[in-house]
Design brief:
Elements: E1 2-5, E2 13-16, H1 18-24, H2 28-31, H3 44-56, E3 58-67, E4 73-84, E5 90-99, H4 101-123, E6 129-131, E7 137-140, H5 142-148, H6 152-155, H7 166-175
Antiparallel strand pairs: 1-2, 1-5, 3-4, 4-5, 6-7
């Protein structure tokens, strides 16, 4: 969505496109009656944004939590640009807002998945090794160190086949799909 607003903490909307109104659940006339700050979950965030706009003339892709008319909170990436008069005074801000709620949800799930993997990897009662395409060891869990009686210096970049007797390694390789 796109909007234009007056500068300042109590900035008012001067223009909003239909996409922006739909993102927030407002009808055209009613959105012009509310201050821009009322759409931010944390209104103090606007002061920080305004300070940076005044210093640099813009703020690019600021990730911020916003709230719609129904109080639904969602994530947006916002780019703010100050449009100035000839004397340098800020006339208004042009703002592009992109709903990134799905992206934030995916990031959250990915972080949770990474944390679960880390907990399982670190606490497993089975030796786990991670190898590269050349079959050199890149990572291992604590149980692997304990079971193999080896440390970082011994394991890092060691060929996985060196951990097995030759006959056992050939048998394991024959099982590989």
């Amino acid at each position: 969505g796109v909007f234009r607003c007056t500068p300042g903490v109590k900035g008012k909307f001067l223009f909003v496109n239909e996409t922006f109104r739909e993102m927030f659940g407002y009808k055209s006339p009613e959105i012009f009656k509310i201050p821009v700050e009322s759409l931010l979950e944390d209104r103090r965030k606007l002061k920080s944004i305004l300070k940076r706009i005044r210093a640099h003339g813009f703020v690019e892709k600021e990730q911020i939590r916003l709230k719609g008319k129904d109080h639904r909170v969602f994530w947006c990436s916002m780019t703010w640009v100050a449009v100035k008069e000839k004397n340098g005074r800020i006339r208004y801000f042009d703002v592009l807002a992109e709903d990134i709620s799905v992206q934030k949800h995916v990031e959250k799930e990915l972080n949770e998945s990474k944390e679960l993997f880390r907990v399982v990897f670190d606490n497993s009662a089975a030796a786990i090794t991670v190898i590269d395409k050349d079959e050199n060891i890149l990572a291992w869990n604590p149980f692997a160190e304990k079971m193999l009686e080896m440390n970082k210096k011994d394991l890092f970049n060691k060929s996985i086949k060196d951990l097995y007797p030759p006959q056992e390694w050939r048998r394991l390789r024959s099982l590989r799909i």
